[in-house]
Amino acid sequence: MALVDKKLAWRLLTVQALIIVFGSALLLMQSPQAAWSFLTGGAIAVIAHGYFAYKAFAFSGARAAKQIMRGFYMGEAGKVAITALMFFAAFKWLPQVQTKYLMTGFFLALLLNWLAPWLANLNVKRN
């Protein structure tokens, strides 16, 4: 079961990343700064979710229940820390970041967590 969950998580992250890249490419016609800001915001969410998925699905099986729970807690704590650090870095070291596009990219990536299963038609059979 964990292998199916791990594959599903990586497929969802891939769909998220592709939609963010596509949205950024569309914004490139408007302004390079807007596109870069949107891509940065989306990347913050995708990278943080990737870390969570890596930690959450590192273990499987009934004997690894404690490691699974620890992985979920560590994954969530790491996701929050990564998100905060990456926002700090974006505002500090990207001088032309446009806040509304950065936040739009970030929140779109969060919204895609809920919509990606329908968008990607991810019907995974479980045993």
Structural commentary:
The model has no long low-confidence stretch (mean pLDDT 87). With 127 residues, the chain is an all-alpha fold. Helices cover 80% and strands 0% of the residues. The longest helix is centred in the middle third of the chain and has 29 residues.
Radius of gyration, Cα only, in angstroms?
A: 16 Å
Order of helices and strands: HHHH
Q: What is the number of E strands?
A: 0
**What's the shape?**
flat
Which segments are poorly predicted (pLDDT under 50) over 5 or more consecutive residues?
none
| Number of H/I helices | 4
Rounded mean pLDDT is: 87
**Which percent range fits the helix content?**
over 70%
End-to-end gap:
7 Å
Largest beta-sheet details: none
The percentage of residues in β strands lies in under 5%
- Helical/strand content category: mainly alpha
What's the layout of helices and strands?
Elements: H1 2-28, H2 32-56, H3 65-93, H4 99-119
Helix pairs in contact: 1-2, 1-4, 2-3, 2-4
Short summary of the structure?
This protein has 127 residues and is mainly α. The protein has 4 helices and no strands.
Which properties best describe this structure?
127 residues, mainly alpha, flat
